[in-house]
Write a structure and sequence with these properties.
The chain is α+β, with helices and mostly antiparallel strands. The protein folds into two domains: 36 residues; 138 residues, Immunoglobulins (Immunoglobulin-like, Sandwich), CATH 2.60.40. Helices cover 19% and strands 56% of the residues. The chain contains one helix and eleven strands; from the N terminus they run αβββββββββββ. Strands 3, 4, 6, 7, 10 and 11 form a six-stranded antiparallel β-sheet that branches. Strands 1-2-5 form a three-stranded antiparallel β-sheet, with no helix packed on it. Strands 8-9 form a two-stranded antiparallel ribbon. β6 and β7 form a beta hairpin. It is rod-shaped and about 110 Å long. About 3% of the residues have low confidence.
Length: 183
């Protein structure tokens, strides 16, 4: 009987050791998996570059410096809207970027058409169909049909003037999947 008790005790001890080892391996794997970070997309800078103008529109290029950290990104798509003072979109454009490598910054050019009274440029950044970031650039756009020379600064005051008043590009904490529409 003692021999059977010793065998049973040995089986229980071996089973406990194996169970603890498996439990430890599972915990270690879960911790390692959760330590892998999702990629992080950010806008680290932007510029508005004047391209051309007519009596009705000011054509600019919005240049974004889009940075990806931690992991390769999925397919990136950027949609930009120009909003008027009433909150209505007066212009929309989209740009396909593709993926961005780990710890790389891409220069992205977005053609924009402004009119007198344009107040804000909304920029939406999608990754694999999920809205990851929504930001804005508040602007004041003025048109003077009679350009003149400022005598104090000895400089030509152009017909079109665009001034940035503020901007913000926060990430979205819980990305939202939005159905894609064609441009």
């Amino acid at each position: 009987m003692r021999k059977i008790a010793k065998i049973c005790l040995a089986v229980v001890v071996v089973g406990a050791v194996v169970g603890l080892a498996l439990f430890g391996a599972m915990i270690n794997r879960c911790t390692a998996t959760s330590a892998i970070k999702d990629n992080e997309i950010s806008i680290d800078g932007y510029y508005l570059l004047k391209e051309s103008a007519t009596n009705e529109t000011l054509n600019i290029t919005c240049i974004l410096y889009l940075t990806n950290r931690w992991n390769n990104s999925g397919d990136i798509r950027i949609v930009a809207y120009v909003m008027d003072s009433k909150g209505l979109a007066e212009y929309r454009t989209g740009v396909e970027i593709g993926s961005i490598d780990i710890n790389k910054t891409e220069e992205v050019s977005i053609p924009i058409v402004l009119r007198e009274g344009s107040r804000r440029i909304d920029i939406l950044i999608f990754e694999d169909g999920l809205l990851k970031m929504k930001g804005y650039i508040y602007i004041d756009v003025f048109y003077n049909p009679n350009p003149y020379i400022d005598k104090e600064q000895n400089d030509l005051v152009e017909a079109w003037n665009c001034r940035i008043t503020s901007s913000s590009f926060p990430s979205i904490s819980h990305p939202i999947e939005i159905a894609r529409t064609e441009d």
